[in-house]
Design a protein that fits this description.
Helix content: 25-40%
Structural class: alpha+beta
Shape: elongated
Mean pLDDT: 75
Number of helices: 8
Largest sheet: 4 strands, antiparallel
Radius of gyration: 42 Å
Strand order of the largest sheet: 13-14-12-15
Low-confidence stretches: 195-201, 205-214, 216-247
Strand content: 15-25%
Number of strands: 15
Order of helices and strands: HEEEEEHHEEEEHHHEEEHEEHE
Distance between the termini: 29 Å
């Protein structure tokens, strides 16, 4: 399989358009949801890949992919892409067709033009969205099926609990006797509270506890031998501090890349050479076992492109390129 095929498949999963310089561009077009009245099937929204031979100017995606994959400069990556394009053209001239893996097949037409046949890959089909077609019958058909259904008669479950009448009469007699006993009140003389107060608790303790503030809960502990009283005031702590919630980074995010290396030491050395007065936001981006040094990042693609053209005016960063991160 050609070297360029795997990189083309990877980029088409991230971007809606990928251009092969001097050959053409592969564009993903959205197909809206549809309904087949004959089959009574709903088809959800999906994407189809088409080929536009008029898009021949490089968009920088393939050279950037080669830079990350083979750790080469932008100029060297551009030459590698040109070599692969020449190989595709040679195969089209000799064998009249070239397989692009899951993307599809390129064929040479009778008039010398290039014809693209999309493949049957699931990468760009309905399954890539986690959706599939589903049937939905008409309302009249559903009503007919409901009318034809005969429901079985509901069964009534009856349970019998045997009760001994002698036991029931005994329970009723006991309840009547308890009620009669509660209705009869026994006269009780006035009771002197001091007669029922323990001798080892001083009277001052009771007086002091009655003067406690109503809004402040207190706990009183009396010692039997020493007679001392300890009063502790319970207070609730203030509401706990709420933890700070860090803002999640929104995607897609656009990074202006000024270098790509293999190890962290190389990344630190490259960042040490950067002038922090001009590039204040330089940092590292580690993804898929690759380390990229970016000058700045943006959530808006137009702002990222303006910033990219600005730093390319510096000869030191003329090979800077734009990287898009979707997740």
């Amino acid at each position: 399989m050609l070297r360029i095929v795997s990189h083309l498949e990877h980029l088409l999963r991230l971007h809606d358009c990928v251009v092969i310089p001097q050959l053409g561009g592969f564009v993903l077009q959205a197909v809206p949801a549809s309904y087949d009245a004959g089959e009574h099937l709903f088809y959800p929204m999906h994407k189809e890949i088409v080929f536009n031979p008029s898009l021949k100017h490089t968009d920088g995606l393939l050279p950037g992919e080669y830079m990350n994959a083979y750790s080469v400069s932008f100029n060297r990556a551009l030459r590698m892409v040109e070599e692969d394009v020449e190989e595709i053209k040679t195969l089209l001239f000799k064998e009249l067709k070239v397989s692009l893996g899951n993307v599809g097949t390129l064929r040479r037409g009778e008039e010398g033009n290039t014809v693209f046949l999309p493949g049957d890959s699931v990468f760009f089909s309905v399954n890539a969205y986690g959706l599939s077609s589903f049937p939905l019958k008409e309302w009249e058909a559903l009503q007919q099926e409901k009318a034809s259904m005969v429901l079985p008669p509901a069964k009534r479950n009856t349970y019998y609990i045997p009760i001994n009448r002698a036991i029931l009469r005994g329970i009723a007699s006991s309840a009547a006797a308890i009620a009669l006993f509660l209705m009869i009140s026994t006269p009780v003389k006035e009771v002197n509270p001091s007669a029922y107060t323990a001798s080892f608790i001083p009277t001052e303790i009771v007086k002091t506890s009655n003067k406690a503030k109503p809004n402040t809960p207190t706990t009183t502990i009396a010692g039997a031998t020493s007679g001392n009283v300890t009063t502790a005031t319970l207070s609730s702590s203030s509401s706990a501090a709420k933890p700070k919630v860090e803002k999640e980074e929104k995607y897609p995010m656009y990074y202006v890349i000024i270098g790509s290396v293999k190890t962290r030491k190389q990344a630190d050395d490259l960042m040490a050479e950067v002038d922090r007065t001009t590039l204040k936001h330089v940092n590292k981006l580690v993804k898929d076992d690759k380390i990229r040094i970016y000058a700045n990042k943006f959530a808006d693609k137009s702002k990222a492109e303006v910033y990219l053209s600005k730093i390319r005016q510096n000869t030191k960063y003329k090979d800077a390129w734009l990287y898009t991160r979707n997740k």
